[in-house]
Design brief:
The protein is mainly alpha-helical. The chain folds into two domains: 5-99, Rna Polymerase Sigma Factor, Chain: A; 103-180, Arc Repressor Mutant, subunit A (Orthogonal Bundle), CATH 1.10.10.10. 76% of the residues lie in helices and 0% in strands. α1 (5-14) crosses α4 (54-75) and α7 packs across α9. The longest helix has 28 residues, at 146-173.
Length: 181
C-alpha cells in the first residue's frame, strides 16, 4: 500500500526542518535549500504511489533532496565547498538517528530554550541564524569585538544544547518543571 497525496504532503511538512537542514548541509545556501525542498515536495506528490509509508517517505525525500542538491551544485558555475559523496554516505547513519526525533517537539524545545537566553545573546544568535550575518558583521552590528561574538555564540550553543537535552528528558519522563531545574 502506498501513501496518498495528503499523507505525503503532511509527512513532508512535518519533517521540513530535517530535510532543509540536510539539504543546507550540502548546498550551504538557505534559499537554494528551500527551493530544493519545494522541488522534492513536488516530485513526492507526483510519485506518492511509489512511497509505501511515512518512514519510507523520509528516506525517499532525503535521497531525492540529496540528488537534487548535488544536481544543483553541478549546474552552478560558482560552487561552494561541498561534501564528497563518500562523506554524505557516512552521514546517512547519523541522519537516520535524527529521523527518529519529532521535529515539532524539537522546534518547541529550541524555541523555549531560545526564550531563556539573555536578550543580548539571543540577538547575536538571531543575527547569525535568522539574518545570516558573519561573525564580523555581527560584531559591527552589536559593537563588540569579533572574538566576543564567537565566545557568545559558543556559550549560546552550549546553553541551548543543555537546555534542549533537559527538555527531552522532561518530555520522556513526563516530569513538569524538570527542564527548568
Amino acid at each position: 500500500m502506498s501513501l496518498d497525496v495528503d499523507s505525503t504532503v503532511k509527512g513532508l511538512m512535518r519533517d521540513r526542518a530535517k530535510l532543509l537542514a540536510y539539504t543546507h548541509a550540502i548546498v550551504r545556501d538557505r534559499e537554494v535549500a528551500e527551493d530544493l525542498f519545494q522541488e522534492v515536495v513536488s516530485i513526492a506528490i507526483q510519485k506518492h504511489d511509489e512511497i509505501s509509508n511515512a518512514d519510507h517517505l523520509l528516506l525517499w525525500a532525503r535521497r531525492a533532496a540529496r540528488n537534487k542538491a548535488l544536481e544543483s551544485l553541478r549546474k552552478k558555475k560558482y560552487r561552494p565547498l561541498a561534501l564528497d559523496r563518500e562523506v554524505l554516505d557516512l552521514l546517512e547513519a547519523p541522519w537516520k538517528r535524527l529521523d527518529e526525533l519529532d521535529s515539532r517537539s524539537e522546534m518547541d524545545h529550541l524555541r523555549e530554550c531560545l526564550d531563556k537566553l539573555a536578550p543580548k545573546t539571543r540577538k547575536v544568535v538571531n543575527l547569525k541564524f535568522v539574518d545570516g550575518l558573519s561573525g564580523i558583521q555581527i560584531a559591527e552590528t552589536v559593537g563588540n569585538e569579533v572574538r566576543s561574538v564567537y565566545v557568545a555564540l559558543t556559550r549560546a550553543y552550549r546553553s541551548l544544547e543543555e537546555c534542549i537535552r533537559r527538555r527531552r528528558v522532561q518530555a520522556e519522563h513526563g516530569t513538569p518543571g524538570a527542564a527548568d531545574a
